Amino acid sequence: MSKATAVSCANIAFVKYWGRKDDALRLPLNSSISMNLDAATTTTTVEFDPALAADEVVIEGTETTAKAAARVSEHLDRIRALAGDGFDRRARVVSRNSFPMGTGIASSASAFAALTVAACAAAGLDPDERTLTILARLGSGSACRSIPAGFVEWHTADTSADSVAEQIAPPDHWDLRDLIAIVQTAHKETESSKGHQLVQASPFAGARLEAAERALPIIRQAILARDFEALGEETEQEAIRMHAVAMTSQPSVLYWSPATVEILHAVRAWRASGLPAYCTIDAGANVHVLCQGADAARIEGDLRALPGIQDVIANRPGPGTRLSDTHLF
Ligand code: DP6
User: Which CATH number describes the domain made up of 3-172?
Assistant: First the structure.
């Protein structure tokens, strides 16, 4: 097969990947835990074509920037190397997201997970899930967590072969919801790739790392026990710790907008009034509001009524990255 298509979910981290011990291998400082997001997917078709002189990368119908295309080509090189001597075909890559362009949630996780699975299949490779997570990680760290289904843990390790992602529980284990409140559609100022490199400049880097290590078993256990309060409390704290490190890096990285803070206050007020919901935030201004299935409709309505919210994307736990017969070209 020379053409293949894969569909991958973005994921939201409860314990964050923030900082690396090896930049080139993308080995994280700490292990992280996430949930795949079923309504935020990337579909990618890859075709290796002997007639092409260079890789071609089209995202949402537009040629990508040289920088983004180079990162994709570098990733394809890893897969070409695995395919063996003499496999030097260039590829056509076309990619689309399920969420509207410019929502600010365009995710390198779903992008590199889908690219990995599609390119391996198009090159005639059939790696096991563990190997796919290693490959995806080399493209973008958080992408390894989008390979398995449902709730996933990515292990920190000193070698590439050991820093793999594994399922903690399947998607139907727990009807947890992630409502993404979109407050910013512009591109974020500091790419997460850069943010990782600034971590050690924060005076709080060591304290945050210790706290993330303590959070890991608490969050894993909360998922297994479907303990929403334990998961939410620790997840919200962990997000604030990650952003405290970003804010106190040099230069300081401030991802939050006024609307981000509005939502943090609103969710705390809802909790105080007995409505269980918690927040987490990735490397951007948008807020992920976690809640249980029974409260999702009400919380989505309340979120939409807040000022500064442009849209809400409602997610359930999503599947792993899978091949599809519906090619984009
Ligand atoms: C804040 O995976 O985007 O979303 O490895 O440089 O591609 P690269 O970084 P990336 O970082 C994600 C950071 C985060 C937290 C998380 O998803 O764990």
Answer: 3.30.230.10
